[in-house]
Specification:
32% of the residues lie in helices and 12% in strands. By secondary structure, it is an alpha/beta fold. The strands form 3 sheets. An 8-stranded parallel β-barrel has the order 4-5-6-7-10-11-12-13, surrounded by 5 helices. A 3-stranded antiparallel beta sheet has the order 1-2-3, with no helix packed on it. It has a two-stranded antiparallel ribbon with strand order 8-9. Helix 4 packs parallel to helix 6 (124-140).
């Protein structure tokens, strides 16, 4: 895009990278990340397309469908439509992960909430249609869609954040989602965003081990991971084996991604507790942020590379928060180090998060686009330039072919729509045909800034530092009285 990014590609180090990538592409036999052909399936320890060619899934997480409907102002922040899909495809991505809200999809617990009085009102059918249409739009640009159960909650508790494990609604959620998309060969399912043990967060009475991860049965708090735990309010966790079974019960045969413990950052015991799948289409999901336990090359080599020898590994989320100093290079270079490592080991990666937010500091964090649609430092710029280098090395680009993937009409098998990619979902404004710089979603609210700051605090290794960080963030972004939108937040972790 801008000269900054073109200049970066012209540096001597980047030239060496391009040569190395070209060699890698030649050995692999195709441009890493092409998604022009479907169906997508698992063969051994890698994904293959309809021609049997190995695919490395690379792309972005399109956050907001998991929380916008709960706060009741839209189905997403900004457009999730053909224009958005086209912009992502122009970055040479071949995969987009779409975080979903359990209650909004099922239409339970008063969700979508309509708390902000949007017009037309948000509905269960509208939410499903918006998601299904976006999947169709992505497919039309040669992009695979990964549907992710991100926000969930048990019983009558609203799905207002992340819980440790699936709950009593999760099987019904996946039976519905899988039924809607079972005939679409360009869709994958991410069973549960980030399983975690509350005991690791200081709630010692609620440990979650790998046995419960697989089979369920342990008691975990109703509270999401940003709320205070009430010991009298718990739920019976559902294991990932039951989720795999629920998906397969519909006849859906697409690959299923399973994230490990510790917010999908811990995968040491993944193979030992791998659920049974009659279709043998399971892959591991790894989430990798700088500063986490498995955020080092030593851990990538000892754990992730070892696992990738047996099953496909997709990094469902990754990112860093180091900002370039004085306009120079990123002092950490975490994103580039990890993507280079992942390319060498055939591991996929999707960066968090594809959303445009107002920048309040010289360097944005955990969002990929500036308010004018340019790649934001550090994560957006790193992914944009890296995928451009891959495309340059291959003489083409992942997802650059455009058009519908082979294997049928994009979004085929969706039970609620059947509309074309030019249709506008109920309650969603289409920006098809606008220039990239025109695709500017609403400015970030005060509460969204607070939520973003709190997500950053979660990366503090010590509980004391995390609490101090959260206290400072809450003070900085304290809501003003008599204003709307004070409770909206952008949920990650």
């Amino acid at each position: 895009m801008g000269a900054l990014h073109l200049n970066r590609l012209c540096r001597p180090g980047a030239a060496v990278l391009v040569i190395a990538l070209a060699i890698f592409v030649f050995v692999l036999g195709h441009a890493p990340g092409r998604a022009d052909e479907t169906p997508l399936s698992i063969s051994g320890n890698h994904f293959v397309n309809g021609s049997g060619e190995t695919l490395q899934l690379v792309g972005v997480d399109r956050t907001s469908p998991e929380y916008a409907c709960f706060y009741g102002y839209a189905y997403s922040n900004g457009p999730i439509d053909a224009s958005d899909a086209g912009t992502i495809a122009a970055w040479h991505a071949n995969a987009v992960r779409i975080p979903l809200n359990e209650d909004c999809w099922l239409g339970i617990n008063g969700q979508p909430s309509n708390a902000d009085s949007p017009q037309p009102p948000l509905t269960q059918a509208g939410y499903q249609q918006a998601v299904e249409q976006y999947v169709s739009d992505l497919n039309a640009d040669g992009i695979y869609a990964i549907l992710d159960l991100h926000w969930s909650a048990p019983g009558s508790v609203p799905a207002n954040g992340q819980r440790p494990l699936p709950d009593d609604h999760s099987e019904a959620f996946w039976e519905s989602v899988a039924s809607a998309f079972k005939s679409n060969p360009a869709v994958l399912f991410d069973a549960f965003n980030e399983p975690f043990s509350p005991a690791a967060n200081g709630n010692v009475n609620y440990p979650v081990d790998w046995s419960c991860w697989k089979n369920g049965g342990c008691e975990v708090p109703d509270a999401n991971d940003q709320e205070t735990v009430n010991g009298a309010q718990t739920y019976h966790a559902v294991g990932l084996q039951a989720i795999v079974d629920a998906i397969r019960s519909t006849g859906a045969r697409q690959p299923i991604l399973l994230g490990g413990l510790s917010y999908a950052n811990e995968l040491k015991e993944w193979l030992t507790y791998e659920p049974a799948d009659p279709d043998h289409q399971l892959a591991a999901s790894f989430h990798n942020y700088e500063g986490e336990h498995c955020g080092t090359e030593e851990c990538w080599n000892s754990t992730i590379a070892s696992l990738a020898e047996h099953v496909p590994v997709v990094t469902g989320e990754f990112g860093e928060e180091a900002c370039p100093v004085g306009g120079g290079d990123d002092p950490s270079d975490f994103d580039n180090r990890y993507m280079n490592w992942a390319d060498q080991h055939g591991v996929g990666y999707l960066a968090w998060a594809w959303v445009e937010l107002e920048q309040t500091e010289p360097c944005g964090s955990l969002f990929m686009l500036t308010a004018t649609g340019e790649p934001a430092e550090p994560n957006g710029a790193a992914l944009h330039d890296h995928l451009a280098a891959l495309a340059l090395a291959a003489g083409t680009g992942p997802g650059s072919g455009g058009g519908s993937p082979q294997g049928g009409t994009p979004g085929g098998g969706s039970t609620n729509t059947g509309s074309t990619t030019s249709a506008t979902p109920t309650g969603v404004t289409s920006n098809t045909g606008k220039a990239v710089a025109d695709l500017v979603p609403p400015k970030e609210t005060l509460a969204q800034k607070l939520a973003k700051a709190l997500r950053a605090c979660k990366k503090q290794k010590s509980k004391h530092k995390r609490l101090e960080c959260e206290k400072a963030a809450s003070k900085k972004y304290k809501p003003k009285p008599n204003k709307k939108h004070l409770q909206k937040k952008n949920g990650k972790k």
